[in-house]
Amino acid sequence: MDCSGCCALIASGICFLIFLARFIHLVRLGNPKDLSQKSGDTKKAVKYSFTEAMMPKNKESAYLHLPTYIAGILYHIGTFVTLISFVAFVVISFTKIPIPYSVSLIVSIMLAPAVISGISILIKRIFSKELSLLSGPDDYISNIVTTLAQLLTAIFLLLPEAGDIYYIVMTLFFLWLPFGKTRHLMYFFFARYHLGYFYGWRGTW
Fold first, then answer.
1. How do residues 178-203 score in pLDDT, each as one tens digit?
2. Are the beta carbons of 170 and 86 closer than 8 angstroms?
3. Which residue segment(s) compose the domain that 96 sits in?
4. Is residue 98 situated within a structural domain?
């Protein structure tokens, strides 16, 4: 692994340690301290929060924007594929076991809809008056950095000579990940748990 690859590896380590520290902190906080009388099933509500509540028909306005909702799902899947691919690249750089071209091609094809979704979401955020009013610099930076990471992953899978630019982009991605809105990669799970716990405790969802 060359200098750019080492920078990306160090950045990923910093990112992991920051997330680990935050994870431990959140776990230590435990369940919310609710002084009201319990009148519902928190376990059932938490399960609902992670499953049926995520369906567009049960969200406040997602059912009115199904193309964007689907694009968001594809975009998030692409982000997880990007992270898994990076781990695979690191392992391969040490083991020297090459990725079969067929696997590289399949993963690249899987990333294509995610990249297209990221670009379309960015365009909509720029040109939609409603979204532009709600958007800050973080929204644009997070979108651009994440989309570039997905795009360069797909390119690097097919063109190994693009390694330097790939690792530079991944370095930026990992350094931004725990500080931008991209940190919801971890906070999402705690937020959905707390949401289910809150309404489940009251039996009002």
1. 999 999 999 999 999 999 999 999 98
2. yes
3. 3-8+59-182
4. yes
Let me know if residue 149 belongs to a domain: yes
Residue by residue, DSSP assigns 160-173 as: GGGHHHHHHHHHHH
Measured CA to CA in angstroms, residue 178 lies from 16, 17, 48 at distances of 9, 10, 27
* Residue 121 included in any domain: yes
Asked if 118 contacts 150 with a C-beta cutoff of 8 angstroms, the reply is yes
* Domain count for the chain: 1
Query: Residue 152 in contact with residue 167, Cβ under 8 Å?
Result: no
The string of pLDDT tens digits covering residues 59-74 is 878 878 888 899 999 9
Task: Name the nearest CA neighbour of 11 among 179, 182, 176.
Answer: 176
In a domain, 117, yes or no: yes
Q: Distance between terminal CA atoms of the chain?
A: 51
